[in-house]
Design brief:
Blueprint (H helix, E strand, L loop, with lengths): L5 H21 L7 H11 L2 H13 L8 H29 L14 H9 L8 H22 L1 H23 L7 H8 L7 H11 L5 H23 L4 H4 L3 H20 L1 H5 L1 H9 L1 H18 L7 H22 L3 H6 L2
Helix pairs in contact: 1-2, 1-3, 1-12, 1-14, 1-15, 1-16, 2-10, 3-6, 3-9, 4-6, 7-8, 7-9, 9-12, 10-12, 15-16
Amino acid sequence: MKKRLTYIDVINVVAIYAVLMLHSSQYQLSNGSVVKNGIIQAIFIPAVSLFFMNSGATLIGYLKKYNTKVFFIKRFKRVVIPLVFWSIAWYLFDINFHAFPGPIPHPNPSISDFLISFANNNIFNIFWFFYAIILLYLTTPILAYLADKYKNILFYIVFLNFFGNFFFNFLAGLTKYGQFMPQTSIQINPFISVYIGFFIMGYLIKVNYFNQKQLTLIKILGLISLIVLVLAPILKIKHDLLINSPFVFFYCIGLYIFLKQLSEKYNFFTLHQNFIAKLSSTSLGIYILHPLFFLWFTLIFPVSTKGFIYIWVMPLVTYIICGIIIYFMKKNKFLKIVMP
């Protein structure tokens, strides 16, 4: 019987709640409350990176369980079918309604407009995660082959990714040449996905590639990075300079290690693993539907987007109500197919 990894579920729960916090504090970044919301953004910035790391942890070693054909069939059912279904649903919603964040209005809807918009992630912009994870799925068979005997090569890929997408970009951003980075980074990064480093690190951490001293060092770097990221909005350092910096890289990975070790250390998580697993199972569904619940919340409670209720209470209420609805939706045979 396959042993369920409780820490994966714990991190999934933390990740989706972090997404909700990012989006509830995002609205006022350009309209006031910059420092306060900037700090919130800094704290919760690992949100989607945690999802990528969990995916790598659970998928890169797939060859020990099934072949590549089965892998792609499973991924197609898990992500591609829901992506198509909910893209259609949100496209139809966008014609007459508006929600934040995500939906993009389409005043002149048509089949051709939908197809073009779907190809360009121009229907529901937070679906970028699904486009990015599909790209990682396409590289996974290569990574799975390396995972068996060539883990050092996997770590080398992480290093190249870190250098090309975080360190070099950040370093160049400090100079007058930063404006040229989008083109330069593509030349330096040998792999297509910016997120492949997180994807691989999730797997390497799972298989104990790093010793305890190395894990401790990463956590320390993560803590230092968090402090820098929190101080950045206070010191009025541009957000764009830090978003793809070494600080974000080390904070995301350090937090992942911390949550994994925390989950494995305390019996609380083991004793409640079934409940945590149920919470975890709703994460991607919440990701897809939470803008709708944000909209409903603001219609019922017309509060200021700068206030405590909007930024802190709305994500909690959304998580609880949306999570419960999605949990029961997944018990329906049809809805289970379209709800990842």
